[in-house]
Amino acid sequence: MLRSNTFFYLNGPPSVGKDEIGAQLASTLNSQVFTFKRQLIKIAKTIAQVSDSRWEQLYLAKENPSKRLFGMSPRQFLIQVSETMVKPSLGADYFGEAARKHVLSVGSKIYRPFHPVFTDSGFEPEVGHVIRAFPAARHVVVQLYCEGKTFKNDSRGYLDLDVEKYPEVMTLKLDNPRVEDELLPSHIKHIVSSILKPTLVGDLR
Fold first, then answer.
1. What distance in Å separates the CA atoms of residue 115 and residue 33, rounded to the nearest whole number?
2. In angstroms, how far is the first alpha carbon of the chain from the final one?
3. How far apart are CA 93 and CA 125, in angstroms?
4. What number of other Cβ atoms are within 10 A of residue 205's Cβ?
5. Which residue in 155, 19, 22, 39 sits closest to 90, CA to CA?
């Protein structure tokens, strides 16, 4: 299952354009966006006792502290839950396993080439868990760099996967992606044409 597919892992600091690029990449490939934080958000909402709609409202200002999140911002609260509650108890690859199950659940209903796009890749144990779970697939890390954007106050970082441990992984680097203008399609074309057959990028000319 999923043997002829390519997994994409977008990796970069906050506000560098991962969500925008990931959404268009998934659309171009007729695929779907996945996140490692999907299960984390479920847990965080349960702990904070907030509804889906209330969480969405809070997350629109994810850097702003909220009384509903014990004085933390949504970003800080997710880091707190992940790094001090879940991972120490359940393992550093817990969210990688949750992501693996989600990919299998979605992929089992699709009978065509399927290319999952992860937009929040920043921890080797999580990404590595998915890579090991699908050894016959291709795996591509897309690292986004932008002047002035850093991982300050974020628990993630740029992935530095050991080539001996993960020889099947390709890494692409994209400098200064400008997601707000007409250059976005060219970024997507570069990513796709570097990995997949040219016929998949014809519509991006």
1. 9
2. 32
3. 5
4. 7
5. 39
Instruction: Provide the sign of the torsion angle of the four alpha carbons 180, 186, 192, 195, taken in this order.
Output: negative
Q: Which two tokens stand for residue 185?
A: 């399609």
Q: What is the DSSP string of 59-105?
A: HTTTTS-BGGGTTB-HHHHHHHIIIIIIHHHH-TTHHHHHHHHHHHH
List, in order, residues 6 or more apart from 204 with CB less than 8 Å away. Answer: 28, 185, 186, 188, 189, 192
* Sign, CA torsion 180/59/100/126: positive
Retrieve residue 111's tokens: 């009978």
Strand 117-118 and strand 6-11: the pairing is parallel
Helices (H) and strands (E) in the chain, counts: 8, 5
Which residue is listed with tokens 């796009």? Answer: 117
CA distances from residue 114 to 4, 19, 29, 166 in whole angstroms, order as listed = 8, 19, 8, 21
Assigned token pair, 30: 């007729």
Higher pLDDT, 176 or 138: 138
Question: pTM, whole model, 2 decimals?
Answer: 0.85
Read off the pLDDT of residues 124-158 as tens digits, 9 standing for 90 and up: 999 999 999 999 888 999 998 888 888 887 788 89
Residue linked to tokens 């390519």: 6
